[in-house]
Amino acid sequence: MGYPCLYECEWVKGTTTKGRMVVIVDNNQWDNYEGQFNARLFRTGTGRWEHEDGDTYYGEWKHDKTNGQGKYTWPDGEIYEGQWQDGNKHGQGKYTYPNGETHEGQWQDNKPNGEGKRTFTDGTYEVGKWKDDNQIGVQQYFSKQGKHIENRTYEDHVLIKTEKII
Q1: pTM
Q2: What's the gap between Cα 90 and its chain centre?
Q3: In sequence order, what are the residues at sequence separation of 6 or more whose Cβ sits closer than 8 angstroms to the Cβ of residue 80?
Q4: Going from the N-terminus, what domains does the chain have, and what CATH number goes with each?
Q5: Chain segment 31-60, per-residue pLDDT in tens
Q6: Is 131:116 a contact under the CB 8 Å cutoff?
């Protein structure tokens, strides 16, 4: 790691199994982790991590990175709950933005990619495909009551056509 660390661990037959790690990282801030470790003291299995700035993560780890199911919370109210791969949002998940909007669907490399649903603060929502956090092709737009209101067509990340549904 290269940073000063303090470990308090349980050992079974000479191998760490679970415990606590406190690390002093960049700008003299601390990270705290409580959970499972492997024999090389990498976070693995299930654990809870928090950073001095207020970021927290609770979920699955593999090879010292978030992998599997987990929930990450930022101090401004952002939340991602879903699947992770090698430290990135990847797979099915739900992201809540600070303003209350949500995006639920497929993620790849930390961005919405594939089928998804974006719910706006007024309760209306849009369903369709995303590529690198941008709508692509035809999106179906619904009222908060679930009535299909219009189809919206996006090209090169720009809304190019709106078709009202009668």
Answers
A1: 0.90
A2: 8
A3: 71, 72, 89, 93, 94, 95, 96
A4: 1-74 (no CATH), 76-166 (2.20.110.10)
A5: 999 999 998 889 999 999 999 999 999 999
A6: no
